[in-house]
Amino acid sequence: MKEVLKEVKKVEYLEYIDSITKELSLMGNDGGELGFRVSGSSGEWNVSRRIKEEMLRIGLTDVRTDEFPVHSWEFLSGRLVLQGTGREETFVMSSFCGIKGTAPEGVTAEIIDVGSGTKTDYIGKSVAGKIVLFTIDILDDFWHSLPVYQAELRGAVGCVLTYKGNRYGTRDDALNSFDSQCKYGLPVGNISRKDAAALRTMLAEGPVTATLKLDIKVDLNGKSSNVYGIIPGKNKDKYVMLGGHMDGYFHSYQDDLLGVGTVLGIAKAVLQSGYQPEHSMIIMSHGSEEYGVTESRYDWCIGSWYSINKLRPDWQGKIKAFLNIDAVRPGTPVYVVNATQELHEFFGEIFENITVPADCWPGGQRLAGINGPWSDDYNYAVGGVPAVICGRGPADWSYRNYHTQFDDYTIFESEKGIMQFVLENYTELALKLDECILPPFSFKNVTDQLTATFEDLPVAQASAEIDELKQVAAATGEVAAAVYSKIVTYNKAYRDAIAVGTPADRLDGTHDALMSAYKLIQRDLMKLSPWDDVVFAHECIGGNILALEKAQADAETAEMDNAFAGLRDVDLFRVALDFDPEVFSWLMSLQDPSRDDLYWGTGKVHPMIRADLLLNDIEKSRQEHDYGAIVQRLGETLSEEISLYKKTIRDETAVLTKLKSILEAVSFE
After folding, report:
1. Do residues 372 and 381 touch, judged by C-beta distance below 8 A?
2. Cα–Cα distance between 575 and 231 in angstroms, integer?
3. Confidence (pLDDT) at 24
4. DSSP-based helix, strand, coil % in the chain, nearest 5
């Protein structure tokens, strides 16, 4: 291992990473003026072929291109041509994955400013046959899929979107792009904040006619790819995996070709050093991370979903961990290590002996929970592969440049210190995992965190169920602690055997049992909130109960404004309150927990309350000043949610009971 760590310190590897990343980032869609290479586009395939070529060149074996079906989206250009009182303007536009283009002549109509695009913004405005302009903060307001469908329902023929707020695309001249999650209906273009201000000035002077032109190719029968190669290890059927994603918006140097370049650099250093790892190393470049399917709530991280679920399901249970490098952001105050809870003991011990450069991360390092579905590591985690990603977090650079045309190769000069540490740190983490014959899982971290959630959730409503869960969690935690102690002992013995060249028992049965325990937790205990936070199954339901109780108490005193405000914290009620019922109903259909076609969202969403039905009943009673009926209706909903809460906690207890049985049966012989 020491020879590899010495190798990656050489300046040639940082130079190599910069060179290959710059070359890849300058590739884009054929004929595209802004770059772009997402989901089956010519730009993504250009990069995919070049990465495969590079993997072969540096000496990886078994190099493969795994294809999978996607809705290919290829952006070539966008223009907004405006004619107002005495003047004309033409603005360059970007767009959002999954949005359809226009005919070459574009869509021409009067343009109307509809604020944030909620239903109240349309009061007194007729937009049938017109183009609408709306302005949102995509973090503090809502995703653009909602106002786009709202505009379609009101008869608009196109949308122009611009951003506000202080977290995304904050440069005045920035264009932005994201996945859309939209219905495949209206053409939607994005303009910069500067151009939006000019447009509003024109609108203040009088009517403005707009021509919206988007040159976009969509192929609902497209193909994307993942590209990977292998560094053969002594144990060829067990792996450590490093990866990034090759698709991206504009030139997307930092997000995430810099990750791809870094894992290629690590692979090159391992091969150049002559070191043979204990386990084979997979070097992966994912496609379709940013987007992959139209009209889906879960339209991103499609390449990694296909990889672990459809293309390489045999990897489940065989990969020690997936170390993902994705959008390491310059300027973050703390080096955050996001890892599944089961690995926190292992990584905690490692980082006690690692000094993070103070000039790169003045706040040091912090070990946090799983990053969630915002990167490819999530698909592997819920597919039974432990996952870690480092270096993400809030930063001025990402607020200004992330997913804009300013994510380009000019960043590298100021990021050399950061990337040198990332290069060395990921190499060390991979090699330390490689020296573990058993996955270093501390399942007690999970049982402790599960129990701790009830400190902020209702207890009296399900006291018997919670008491039983806590008892089983405590007993499971004790068994888990004993198992982890043995894992540490056996891993140390394995490292000692490596040091003296003595073969050691692979403990395949023990390894497989621990992996099955991990997969059980990730599959059945860990779920998603309606807003994609990773939570335990009962947490959102418990939060709903607290919000419903408060709303009921406000209704009892006829404080209906407060009651409605409180209901915003229940499931998707914010959508039902801000948009037409059809918008809410459509979004509910996209997050229906009974569906089996939600990609990484399948089986992860709890049954949500039908806010439209409840709010209709409340509004009717409110108009009749029948507050008793409102209290009763809220009480009925609360009762149903308490029943679901109890059932969910009982289900979690059953999972813990099964986990305890698996751990008790683990043999170290």
Report:
1. no
2. 49
3. 98
4. 45, 20, 35
Contact 545, 459 (CB under 8 A): no
Amino acid identity, residue 95? S
* Other beta carbons less than 10 A from residue 65's beta carbon: 16
**Tens-digit pLDDT profile for residues 29-51:** 999 999 999 999 999 999 999 99
The length of the chain, given as a count of residues: 669
Rounded Cα distance, 248 and 258, in Å: 11
User: Which of 165, 163, 170, 218 lies closest to 189 in space, CA to CA?
Assistant: 163
Angle, CA of 148, 594 and 599, to the nearest 5°:
65
Which of the 8 DSSP states describes residue 659? H
CA distance 519 to 534: 15
Q: Which amino acid is at 60?
A: L
535: β partners:
527
Dihedral sign, Cα of residue 463, residue 464, residue 466, residue 471: positive
pLDDT at position 559 over 80? yes
pLDDT tens digits along 334-357: 999 999 999 999 999 999 999 999
C-alpha span between 407 and 250 (Å, rounded): 8
CA distances from residue 588 to 125, 326, 571, 573, 644 in whole angstroms, order as listed: 27, 30, 10, 11, 18
> Using 50, 70 and 90 to split pLDDT, how confident is the model at 148?
very high
Give per-residue burial for 87-101: e unless 16+ CB within 10 Å, then b. Answer: eebebbbbbbbbbbb
Q: Distances from the Cα of 463 to the Cαs of 525, 642, 650, in angstroms?
A: 20, 11, 12
CB 38 within 8 A of CB 301: no
Round to whole Å and give the CA distance between 60 and 70.
27
| Residue that has been written with the tokens 């672990």 in this structure | 308
Residue 75's pLDDT is 98
Q: Determine the distance from the C-alpha atom of residue 322 to the mean position of all C-alpha atoms in its chain, rounded to a whole number.
A: 15
What backbone torsions phi and psi does residue 295 show, to the nearest 5 degrees? 50, 45
